[in-house]
Design a protein that fits this description.
This protein has 129 residues and is of the alpha+beta class. It has a domain at 14-98: predicted glycosyltransferase like domains (Thrombin, subunit H), CATH 2.40.10.220. 17% of the residues lie in helices and 41% in strands. It contains three helices and six strands; from the N terminus they run ββββββααα. The protein has helices at 88-96, 112-120, 123-126; strands at residues 11-21, 24-34, 38-42, 53-60, 63-74, 78-83.
């Protein structure tokens, strides 16, 4: 069983995060806090098994961040994600932003309705329903 003691400060954010599994998009969720080691994601009725390796994508002003990660806890409201490699540069990017730019911003991410429609019907999301 995976065990990790948190050793870094969690920085509050509100940013769209794309979650990918096996090179396929699963869904979009909301990143709620960020550390160098991982991220807490707000989800809706989606539970992934602990230990699943996933890819997170975050779109910022001039970069798309693709971050290999692992699910460390999951329930119907949130998922704890641990990055496979520390993400100091991503953390510094959010810490250095002006406070009003730290939240979800359409400049950094395409219109949510268009993107969400594309993802919510992925086969992985509809299995067993």
């Amino acid at each position: 069983m995976y065990q990790k003691i948190r050793s870094r400060y969690r920085f509050p954010v509100a940013t769209h995060v794309e979650l990918w599994f096996n090179d396929r998009p699963l869904f979009i969720c909301l990143g709620r806090n960020l550390s160098v080691e991982g991220m807490l994601l707000e989800v809706t009725d989606t539970i992934l098994p602990i230990g699943d390796q996933i890819m997170l994508q975050l779109h910022t002003e001039n970069r798309v961040w693709s971050i290999p990660s692992k699910v460390v806890h999951s329930n119907a409201n949130c998922m704890g994600i641990m990055f496979l490699e520390p993400q100091s540069e991503l953390y510094r990017f959010y810490v250095d932003l002006e406070p009003d730019l730290r939240s979800v911003n359409e400049r950094y991410f395409p219109a949510r309705d268009k993107v969400w429609t594309r993802y919510r019907r992925c086969p992985a999301m509809t299995q067993g329903k």
